[in-house]
Each structure stands twice: as C-alpha cells, then as structure tokens.
Design brief:
This protein is mainly α. It has 2 domains: 45 residues; 134 residues, no CATH class. It is built from 7 helices and no strands.
Length: 183
C-alpha cells in the first residue's frame, strides 16, 4: 500500500528490518552477558531474609542501648498521633484542621483528591506518613554503625515502608475503591 499520489510505501520495510535486526543483536548480547555472569558465579541474588532479620535485630538492640533516647522518640510519635486524632476529630465535626504531616513533594501515591478531602483516608495517609517518618529516622539515626550497614538499613526500611503504603492495598486506596464501585 502506498501514499496517495506517490509510489512511497506507508511502511518502510527496510528501516523496520534494520530496527528489528538491531533489536535482535542487542537482545543476544544481553542474554550472552547474563549467561556468562551466571556461569562465572557472579549471579544476581535475592537478599537473604536471615541476613536482613539479623541486620534489624542488631539495629534494634543498638536503639535499645539508649532507652531514654528511644523513649523520647516513642513519646514524640505518640504526641504526633494525638495531634492527628485531634485534627481528625475536628474534621469529622466539620471544623477545619491543618494536616499534621504532608506527603513529600513528588510523592504520587496520594494524588487522588480523596486522600485529602475524605477524613478517613486522610487519617490513614497521615498515620502511615507519621509511622514511616518515625521509622526512617529511627533506623537512619543509629549511632556506632558503619556506613555500609547504615545504607542497608535505610534501603530495607524504605523498601518495607513503600510496600506497606496504604495506596498499595485495595481496601485502603480510594481510587481503587471508586473504580471497583463503578465497575
């Protein structure tokens, strides 16, 4: 099939063949590289759950080594929750209340308006954010920890917290609930 008034085909067969050939050659190189790494013992591995558990047990023991500091951090978290309860109660009574905590700029998980407009979803969001912030500070602020261990703690903490986001669960995600109700 050609363009009207020209003999030029709509599909450039030669260009598509060259693109496909390039794609195939790249794919073969990637697979070859992967296979070479696998056979050399330099394989991709999943983190060992026992190692991760030990990492967090050791970190928790270091946190508990200074009980006053840990108790102070706990008290701060409880005060934040009390503030959140008070703000939520005001909203449910029809009053205005400023948020206790807001998502970080660029956090797309809570873009749906219901996360802010609906008092229940706002409470769920802020509760999650308070806990996430607290855990990040606790595991990121452990003293007497080498930089590599601190980096691992921060990484695994962030992964776990991201996985536990209320936006990841149908029962606590307003957008999913709206879509389910419509369909």
């Amino acid at each position: 099939m050609a363009d009207e008034g020209t003999d030029k085909p709509l599909v450039d067969v030669e260009r598509n063949a060259a693109l496909y050939k390039d794609f195939t050659e790249r794919t073969q190189r990637i697979i070859k590289s992967f296979m070479e790494r696998q056979s050399s013992g330099e394989s991709y591995s999943v983190a060992d759950p026992v190692e991760i558990s030990k990492l967090f047990l050791d970190a928790s023991a270091k946190m508990m080594a200074d009980p006053a500091k840990f108790a102070d951090a706990q008290a701060g978290l409880m005060k934040s929750y009390a503030d959140l309860w008070q703000a939520t109660a005001k909203r449910m009574a029809g009053e205005d209340a400023a948020p206790v905590i807001e998502p970080a700029r660029g956090d797309k998980r809570f873009k749906d308006d219901a996360w802010s407009e609906d008092a229940v979803f706002d409470f769920i969001k802020q509760s999650y954010l308070l806990t996430s912030d607290w855990m990040t500070k606790q595991y990121g602020g452990i003293e007497d920890t080498d930089p590599k261990t601190k980096e691992k703690l921060q990484f695994y903490t962030r992964q776990w917290l991201d996985a536990m986001s209320p936006s990841n669960f149908a029962a606590t995600n307003p957008k999913v609930l709206k879509t389910a109700a419509k369909t």
